[in-house]
């Protein structure tokens, strides 16, 4: 079965987002530079902070390209006047075998049993979260990075959360990855990520998009 005939995951995103094709590296970098400038401002003394935001979003985009993600969403602001650097990547579903039937819990149990035999990281953080029509497993990690620019050095933390959704009516799971350079606020950002997941839902391919997104170069969600 082609991916075009599979149900499509839809998001009700808070605030304003840009939708991009992660394979378009030039357009993605241009939008990341704009977002970092809007979030931090153009001041010379904010260069390291701008670099921190750019680095976090560029890593998310690079990971999306490497993993053949078909959609990259970048947040401009999560609410009016609240600029928040967040990236979301959506990946093509994979088939889980063996799985008894296509019920979400059955497919997720089979997936969970397979995880120790894969290279999926951060298994100790695994937790179920809520989403309409799916069983969803979340794993997350906070990494520390050092950034040097214009003779200034800063250390920052990056949060990455990986959400594995069961696909309704299929023996498949789909990965949605959310990341932010605001890793110093992991609990607050995970609450935001979980809320985005809770507001997501599956729809037939070609159904109208409910998300509020400021368009980039990618097709509809």
The helix-strand sequence is EEHHEEEHEEEEHEE
On the 0 to 100 scale, the average pLDDT is: 84
Structural class category = alpha+beta
Question: Counting H and I runs of at least 4 residues, what is the number of helices?
Answer: 4
Strand content: 25-35%
Describe the sheet with the most strands: 9 strands, mixed
Question: How would you sum up the global shape?
Answer: elongated
Distance between the termini: 20 Å
| Total beta-strand segments | 11
In terms of per-residue confidence, which ranges show pLDDT below 50 for 5 or more consecutive residues? 208-221
Share in helix:
25-40%
Computed Rg: 18 Å
List keywords for this structure.
disordered C terminus, nine-stranded mixed beta sheet, elongated, alpha+beta, two-stranded antiparallel ribbon, 221 residues
Overview of this structure, please?
- By secondary structure, this protein is of the alpha+beta class.
- It has 4 helices and 11 strands, in the order E-E-H-H-E-E-E-H-E-E-E-E-H-E-E.
- The chain has helices at 25-40, 47-66, 104-114, 186-198, and strands at 8-10, 16-20, 71-77, 87-90, 94-95, 127-131, 134-149, 152-166, 172-180, 201-203, 214-215.
- Strands 2, 3, 4, 5, 6, 7, 8, 9 and 11 form a 9-stranded mixed β-sheet that branches. It has a two-stranded antiparallel ribbon with strand order 1-10.
- The chain is elongated.
- Mean pLDDT is 84; it is low at 208-221.
């Amino acid at each position: 079965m082609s991916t075009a005939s599979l149900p499509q995951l839809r998001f009700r995103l808070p605030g304003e987002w840009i939708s991009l094709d992660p394979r378009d590296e030039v357009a993605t970098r241009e939008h990341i530079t704009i977002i970092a400038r809007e979030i931090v401002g153009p001041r010379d003394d904010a260069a390291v902070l701008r670099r921190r935001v750019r680095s976090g979003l560029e890593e998310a985009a690079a990971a999306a390209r490497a993993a053949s993600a078909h959609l990259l969403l970048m947040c401009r602001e999560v609410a009016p006047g609240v600029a928040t650097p967040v990236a979301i990547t959506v990946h093509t579903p994979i088939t889980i075998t063996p799985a008894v039937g296509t019920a979400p819990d059955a497919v997720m149990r089979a997936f969970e049993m397979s995880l120790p035999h894969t290279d999926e990281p951060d298994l100790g953080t695994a937790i179920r979260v809520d989403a309409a029509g799916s069983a969803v497993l979340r794993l997350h990690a906070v990494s520390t990075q050092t950034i040097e620019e214009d003779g200034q050095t800063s250390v920052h933390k990056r949060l990455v959360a990986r959400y594995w959704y069961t696909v309704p009516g299929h023996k498949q799971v789909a990965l949605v990855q959310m990341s932010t350079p605001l890793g110093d606020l992991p609990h607050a950002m995970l609450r935001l990520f979980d809320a985005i997941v809770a507001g997501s839902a599956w729809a037939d391919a070609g159904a109208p998009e409910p998300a509020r997104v400021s368009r980039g170069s990618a097709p509809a969600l």
